[in-house]
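agent> Task received from the user: take the single chain below, predict its 3D structure, and emit structure tokens. No templates, no multimer pairing.
agent> Plan: (1) validate residues, (2) run structure prediction, (3) serialize to tokens, (4) report one or two observations.
agent> Step 1 OK, no nonstandard residues flagged.
tool_call: predict_structure(input=
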Amino acid sequence: MTPDPADARVTVVQTEPEFGAVDANRQTTVDAVREHADSDLVVLPELATSGYVFESHGEVDAAAEPADGPTAEAWAAVASETDTWVVGGFPEADGDDRYNSSLVVSPEGVEGVYRKVHRWNEEKRWFEAGDDVPVFDTPFGRLGVQICNDVWFPELTTKQAQSGVDLVAVPTNWVPEPADRPAGWTMGVHHAVANANANRVFFACADRAGTERGVTFEGQSVVVDPDGVPLAGPLPDSGSHSATADCDLARARDKALTPRDDVLADRRPDVYGDQ
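)
tool_result: status=success, residues=275
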């Protein structure tokens, strides 16, 4: 049975991980969840424990851990302590395979893992692609997860909306593309706004900041409502910050734009379905 939606306090945390400093980065995320113990959900960045700019399989292996490893244990402990749900990114080791993954953790423990479906650029060298889109029942509604480049593929959000998702948590590492784009302007925010509005769901995007191995990340973490309006953020494009919004998730159950327009029922896959 789909849980009834409720008001949820949602926090996106923008950190500056140090590449390869897994223990220190993990502690930063634990401290952030503890700092926002009044939130129902805390979203952390993509690969928050490891950093992003890998240069070898050995570096990936050194940072990767199983879905029941130390990060899962640490986030489960702080989620239980604070009565908070946590979604955050880590490099997952599953046998010989590595995934760019996000843990979904409740006060009861690890609820599951989302593996990034749409890998970006160099990620295709280091990580396998995920092929599952789980939906998580929470006390405040139905939760979906995307990671960074997934937001560029609107079909994924539509699939989640059709599955009853009220809120999409997005651990992300947005980078400038093209590189000469004006500072303080990221397509990630625009895609989150468009996908939220097109499917009438909430988006909570937690980006990282800082420069790592010559790559500068864009920050601008944001919480967006089903009208495509930012409720909190975008945060600055540099530095560690957080933003919190109180979200009435019942709004995501109403897909009507007007009395005659419905964002899901009006879709025409017979016209524009996959070719």
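agent> Step 4: summary for the user.
The longest strand covers residues 85-94.
agent> Done.
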